[in-house]
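User: Could you walk me through two proteins back to back? I'd like the raw sequence and the structure tokens for each, with a short line separating them so I can tell where one ends and the next begins.

Assistant: Of course. Protein one, sequence then structure:
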Amino acid sequence: MRSWQALPLGNHQRIPFLSRNFYTFGGYIISETMAIEILAAPNLRTSYMKMVKHLRELSYDSLLLNFPENLEPLVRELVENKLSYKAFIKEVRKQKLVPEPIDGWRYTAEPLLKSLEDLKLRRHKMECYCYKDTNYTLISADVASKIAQLTLRASITRKIDVEDWKNILKGGMKHKREALEKEVDSIHEKSSNECSCPSGLDGEQLERCLIERGRRVKLTNIEESYHPTPLEILEERLAKGDVPDEEAEGLIVDHLEYIKNYILTSKNRDQAYYQWVYDKVPSLRPKIDPEEIRHLDVLLLPNDI
């Protein structure tokens, strides 16, 4: 178990009056036996395909999915092969468990959802849960809708109200922090001795919060060289404090260009993102094959559901 890290380097000591399975680290009581591996991935279909490959190679008793908790009953039916994937998506739509249009969510989640039955066959005792806060799923969709409206307005008027952008992003981030606490509680309660836990780009925050609850955690980034999009960069900067209007406006302009020249002209999200990285991030260009970018159009969702 030496590969599992609770915190960056520091002093720790065992606690004799508890047991040999606990020690203190950075002021926290850490369990040696109950380990959680967080698999952090960006909102890209190819990243979730890599995540599935990683999950097939790991050993774990429980799988905690970064899907809304209200999906858990249906996900369990999907895992147990009591529900086909097509029937699962139809039921999600019927019960309105994910904000419409759900194809944006489905585009990324589908590789993981379709792999669940196979993962269960490989690990008969595997328990599967969902841990994302359901209310925040709705709030996040609302924030995304408001950002889309600002994007459209700025594209038409060529004017940017920086404060509007900041306020919407800050509001979304506030709700995200509140949801994170609930999600950490859910993971802490549902996870078993050996647990795999897919996450988005908030994997590092999950790791820190779980450590505070005494859990032994390993964070694995599915994409080692991921470069955040302009809006993700702005959110990162705002999380550390206020951002000067000039800097914020520059990132918003970059976002508008990303939407206009890449998202709207590409077949799917992955193709747009990797073409943008290839064009705009010279340090990562040697790691990207332009021919492979062109072939990413095969990742389009089928229209049969």
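----
Protein two, same layout:
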Amino acid sequence: MIYSLTKDKIDDLLNNIIEDENDPTRRAFRGWITGDYGEHIYHRNMARIAEATTFKKLRSFVIQQFTSFIAHEAGCSYGYAQKSIVNYYNNLDLLRGRDNGEHLERLTYFLIEEIDQTYTELHPDTNRAPITEAGENVTC
């Protein structure tokens, strides 16, 4: 029963976040990155983003932080949140007739763009160039 409630909470958090950049979950995740959940989280996140000098590193950071955020919001373990996120989007892919992983990749890409933009806005003196999927270095 507890897992069912947690699964429902995670499903509610994930519903509509790809389509709506102002969805409450997306706004709360931006707050997670920018320190609304604690100054120590902000400093840790900004340091990790600064060190993410390739698309692959930034993607890894985004996936790890989004999963941690969902686990925090749902009150569950990181592993359970990770499994639930993957299952939710795999089921959505099946329902919509999409390739397996397509929705999750779209969400990841949108979150990467948001985090990269947010970092640049918070650190206007940075010499950070836009990220590319080709894996080029994101700093000039």
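Residues 2-122 form one domain.

Let me know if you want the two compared in more detail.
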